[in-house]
Design goal:
The chain is α/β, with parallel strands linked by helices. Helix content is 34%, strand content 23%. The chain is built from six helices and ten strands; from the N terminus they run E-H-E-E-H-E-H-E-H-H-E-E-E-E-H-E. It has helices at residues 11-22, 52-58, 88-103, 125-133, 136-151, 190-203; strands at residues 2-6, 26-31, 43-46, 64-67, 107-113, 156-162, 164-166, 174-178, 187-189, 209-215. The strands form two sheets. It has an eight-stranded mixed sheet with strand order 3-2-1-4-5-6-10-8, with helices on both faces. Helix 1 packs across helix 6 and helix 3 (88-103) packs parallel to helix 5 (136-151). It is globular. The relative contact order is 0.15.
Length: 219
């Protein structure tokens, strides 16, 4: 299977590439600077998913789309300046949905955030305060816009809302809980997210669902 990956140069995206290759899948990647992916065997399209023409070109031959994009900042500090457009996630999603319709592709899996969209009301007050007054708010808002786009589309989408993302390798896997149900833990490792995304594409699971995704805790 060939998969269009939005966010291939990001920290989660690179885990998706490795896991896809391990499973024998091909990746179509978009990058402004192809050198960032020189160590990966991917089908490269130079540009950004903010541009429809780039997405249209990159989706050729693909059977699914994975979006791991975020409205990134110059550091992990919540108040750090943005280095991505405020609507990068939703603009890339809209471009992908349009290109998918033209190409006859229906499967879309997105990395979201607990606190986006309808889940805002369920997060702790302190987190709401930090998000509201920092540059985190732009990512949360745009994740919410992506959810709206997907719910109003004909795509077979799955949005996987994540709690805190971690670069620590997790070997217990990740579990999904239905929207509104507390996730099984407070952390999602990027490698477990990648494994889950590919598994649900392979097995055609969680169609047209928004779930919370988190690491399964060790017994």
């Amino acid at each position: 299977m060939k998969i269009l990956l939005l966010g291939a140069t990001g920290r989660t995206g690179q885990h998706v590439i490795r896991e896809a290759m391990r499973r024998g899948h091909a990746i179509s990647a978009i990058a402004r600077d192809p050198e960032k992916l020189k160590d990966f065997n991917v089908d490269m399209t130079q540009g950004t998913p903010y541009e429809y023409g780039t997405v249209e070109q990159a989706i050729g031959g693909c059977e699914a789309v994975i979006n791991t994009l975020n409205v990134s900042r110059k550091s992990d500090n919540p108040w750090a300046p943005l280095r991505a457009p405020k609507d990068l996630i939703s603009r890339a999603c809209a471009n992908a949905l349009q290109a998918m319709e033209q190409a006859g592709v229906t499967r879309f899996v997105a990395l979201g955030a607990i606190g986006a969209g309808r889940s805002w009301k369920n997060i702790p007050f302190l987190l709401k305060l930090v998000v509201s007054v920092s540059n985190l708010r732009f990512a949360f808002r745009d994740h919410g816009r992506q959810e709206e786009l997907l719910e109003n589309s004909a795509a077979d989408y799955t949005v996987c809302r994540a709690p805190m993302l971690s670069g620590t390798i997790n070997d217990t896997g990740a579990a999904a809980t239905p929207e509104g149900i507390r996730p099984v833990s407070t952390v999602l490792s990027r490698n477990s997210a990648a494994e889950f995304f590919l598994t649900i594409i392979e097995q055609n699971e969680h169609l047209r669902e928004i779930v919370s995704l988190a690491n399964i805790s060790k017994a």
